[in-house]
Amino acid sequence: MRLRPYLFILLLCSLSFFVVGTSEAAPKKKTKYKTPPTKKAPTSAVPSKRSITLTWDASLDPNIAGYRVLCGTVSKRPVTVVDVGSATSAVISNLAAGKKYYFAATAYDSLGRESSPSYEVSFSAPAASKSVSFTGFNVTSLPTALANVSTRVYVAHGEEVLIAGFTIDGSASKRVALRALGPSLQKSGLQNVLGDPLLTLYDASGAMIARNDDWRLTYDSVNAPGLEPTEEKEAALVAELPPGSYTAVLAGADGGAGVGLFELYDLTTTAGRIINLSVRGKIEAGENNIMIGGFVVSGAGQIPVMIRALGSSLETAGVTGALADPILEVYNQDGTLLASNDSWKSHQESEIKATPFAPIDDRECVIYNALTPGNYTAVVRSAVPFHTGIALVEVYSMAR
């Protein structure tokens, strides 16, 4: 899965620093000695302190509710966070003279969603009072992201397990919940469901982070009210994940096969973002055995999203039994068909070629649309009736 961090929208601001204040060290009292004084052990000097005033232009984004200023003595490792509300200035005090400091800022909205930090500016507090000015201090707008995600597909063995990949960006860890459902799908009228799902989470190196079979066995680690599965045989886990790429695998714990549902929930919308996702599974004959992927777009305004359905090109990655000719459909939350595609060159060829996501096989599919925030469903099936095979559906937010 390719990493494409196309999610930053920069709003130009200016930042000025003004250094004010004087040394806080207490003045020494002069004493006259008739005879030379006895030498005393040296004492450590109390460093002079400085205060810095930061100012910036207000963001033009109407969703911005306030700002936070980040400060630290190590690059990209802030230890002080100052919430200034809607103010466009902040005073950072108690800076040691001669020490170098790093500053950045974030913006947030009324729901608590926070942007990624701006790029840093560095500043060494002077030994004497003077003014220093910086410009080009950029605060990113509120993030666009892919929030909750789900995919339903037939799950079997070997190459035919469900493999879901996702990427978290930003600088802070994100808390996510993952579920693997099977038996409860029968309540929706589905037959031949996966009887005992097994869910495993891996990091980018392939190291296992967590595994769950029956969710009640690790209930304390799930700890996501409202997300507990209704069937004991189903799996769930909650993980605090730093920025990076991850893979979740859904298989049958008892070696069984059937229709399974994978779900990913964003539990901390104020930190980081899920910027892309992909799910690989086997498409069988029949409407109940197609691949159905649901995703939520969050943010403001229209957001460009690219959705791909790959089949035959998977063989170049060593996958056997790939679906030769997929067809892709995208629906909104009302069930209205927004777009469909059989061959990616049949529509928006030039726009797709201008991105890094043009498929290598003409029979594969791409839909490139601007979507408003909401719930969407991507459906992948075979363009040739009764043909089966392994397919991959991918969703990328293309917002910069």
Structure description:
With 400 residues, the protein is an all-beta fold. The protein has two domains: 10-23 and 49-140, Sandwich (Immunoglobulin-like); 145-397, Jelly Rolls (Sandwich), CATH 2.60.120.380. 2% of the residues lie in helices and 46% in strands. It is built from two helices and 26 strands. It has helices at residues 219-222, 349-353; strands spanning 10-11, 15-20, 49-56, 66-72, 80-85, 89-96, 100-108, 121-124, 131-133, 139-140, 145-155, 162-169, 174-181, 197-203, 208-212, 235-241, 244-252, 258-266, 273-283, 291-298, 303-310, 326-332, 337-341, 365-371, 374-382, 389-397. Strands 16-13-18-11-20-25-22-23 form an eight-stranded antiparallel β-sheet. A hairpin with a 7-residue loop joins strand 4 and strand 5 (80-85). The two termini are 19 Å apart. Residues 1-47 and 129-143 have low confidence and may be disordered.
What order do the helices and strands come in, and which of them pair?
Layout: E1 10-11, E2 15-20, E3 49-56, E4 66-72, E5 80-85, E6 89-96, E7 100-108, E8 121-124, E9 131-133, E10 139-140, E11 145-155, E12 162-169, E13 174-181, E14 197-203, E15 208-212, H1 219-222, E16 235-241, E17 244-252, E18 258-266, E19 273-283, E20 291-298, E21 303-310, E22 326-332, E23 337-341, H2 349-353, E24 365-371, E25 374-382, E26 389-397
